[in-house]
Amino acid sequence: MSASIPDGDTLSEVSDLEVYDATGRKIRFGSFFATQRVIAVFIRHFFCGNCQLYVSQLTSEYAKLSKAFEEAHIDIIVIGCGDWQPIENYSDITGFPSRKIFADPSLSVFHGLGMNSQTLARTPTGEKKASYITKGIIEGSLWSIWKALKNPLLIGKQGNIAQLGGEFILGPGDYQISCL
């Protein structure tokens, strides 16, 4: 991750980049937050078990607060670094609507927002694990592998397994950005 929060000029540049929806259609990234505030959640890759658990918990929490989000004109989207083909499967696993999941296979938006770090490291020893991490390293790894093997046509389309993600609050407009 970059040491600094992207500024409005950076966000304006990134706004013109494209991501893919669940049907493979290109969508201008800035269109998500042109007229409303959006929480953009960038995940590691579509087969990452911990990211699946995170988005599942996010789905559950969002359902509880959906009316408040709607009244405040705030939406949530998820963007993975893989190809668009795994999106429907990811939606089935996490319960997050596929119409709000997108793919950035070139990593142009990831890198444009400063998400350049890659690692396979887990939560450091002694640090408290996030509440959504309910599986140990072996169980989580086996679960991810099983999900991938159940969908052999998607293997290799999940994205870079070492790519780190992040969360941003964007909009409304091309110059409004915050980090979570």
CATH superfamily: Glutaredoxin
Flag low-confidence runs.
none
Q: How many runs of DSSP E, i.e. beta strands?
A: 7
Give the neighbour order of strands across the main sheet.
5-4-3-6-7
| Mean model confidence by pLDDT | 87
Overall geometry: globular
Helix content: 25-40%
What would you call the structural class? Answer: alpha/beta
- Class in CATH? Alpha Beta
CATH architecture call: 3-Layer(aba) Sandwich
Order of helices and strands: HEEEHEHEHHEE
Strand content: 15-25%
InterPro entries: PXL2A/B/C, Thioredoxin-like_sf
Protein name: AhpC/TSA antioxidant enzyme-domain-containing protein
Summarize the structure.
With 180 residues, the chain is an alpha/beta fold. Helices cover 32% and strands 17% of the residues.
Quickly list its features:
180 residues, alpha/beta, Glutaredoxin, 5-stranded mixed sheet, two-stranded antiparallel ribbon, 5 helices, 32% helix, globular
Question: What would your notes on this structure say?
Answer:
This protein is α/β, with parallel strands linked by helices. It has one domain (8-179): Glutaredoxin. Helix content is 32%, strand content 17%. The chain is built from 5 helices and 7 strands. It has helices spanning 8-15, 49-71, 87-94, 108-112, 137-149, and strands spanning 18-20, 26-28, 37-42, 74-80, 101-103, 166-170, 177-179. Pfam families: AhpC-TSA_2.
